[in-house]
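discrete fold record:
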Amino acid sequence: MRADSTTTFRSLYPSIEPYTSERIPVADGHEIYVEQSGNPHGIPVLFVHGGPGGGTSPIQRRFFNPSKYRIILFDQRGCGKSRPHASLENNTTWDLIADMEAIRTHLRVKTWVLFGGSWGSTLSLLYAQTHPERTRQIILRGIFLSRRKELDWFYRDGTRSLFPEAWKRFSSMVPTDEQDDLIKAYYKRLTAPEFERERLSFAKEWSLWEGSTVTLVPDDEQRAHSVDPVFALAFARIEAHYFLNQCFLDSDNHILRDCHKLKDIPVTIIQGRYDAICPPTSAWELAQAMPWASLKIVPVAGHSAFEPAIQHELICATDAV
């Protein structure tokens, strides 16, 4: 972070293009988009995107020194360039972990660094707990542990107090008698045949709620991206599907319970102090469960990986591997 007038934030590495991209067939008829950029002989790093359903974008390659890293991006089931688009069939957390292993095997990677934020932090932790022997190091941002209290914070009684005008728009899309469970109400409208004609409108509103709360300073570009029809449909349907099903975990405390499995893996946690989507409590509790982890709470930052101070810390973390 900026310590004095002579210290500046790190900027992203220059834009690069992939040296290879493909769709890898996995189980159940899904095809996963995977691309590689940077140094083919460098340290393998897997970018684990958020959402669920957020997909990747070219700018995400730029957190990594391209001469040091073999940069691997993939779009999780149903989103981005993966196919079928916006599909909820055979789309669970455990399917995604199996896909990550399929990618690793296909690319002949022995071990890799995991880099994940928000839902990407959840999936990175769960993958590493399942495959610790394949995980070299973990860099996390904006911690989400898929617990009921975290979902309630964002979809019931937390973030709404900071963004009342955005909440009014989001919640008023459904009848008053359904507003006590917006995940369920929106899921019905995003999946049920009788709402097919209105589905895209609900998808855009679901996505806009998150796009309106993701940065410390309002970001019109982020809001515009959130209502892109292709992005919003996959993002909203997949998120609602996962959140209605508690992200398919066997207990509310699943991740914290299994943190001991990561005891031999270096972990860096970077968290915005004013993250309105995934507040610092979860990052703090995760660090308490992993005393060997490094926790950096960034004083002036929200949730987005592209908050200047968050971006700085993430790049410093990748450089330090």
User: Anything to note?
Assistant: The radius of gyration is 19 Å. Confidence is low (pLDDT under 50) at residues 1-6. The chain has two domains: 20-147+249-320, 149-247. The first strand starts at residue 20 and ends at 25.
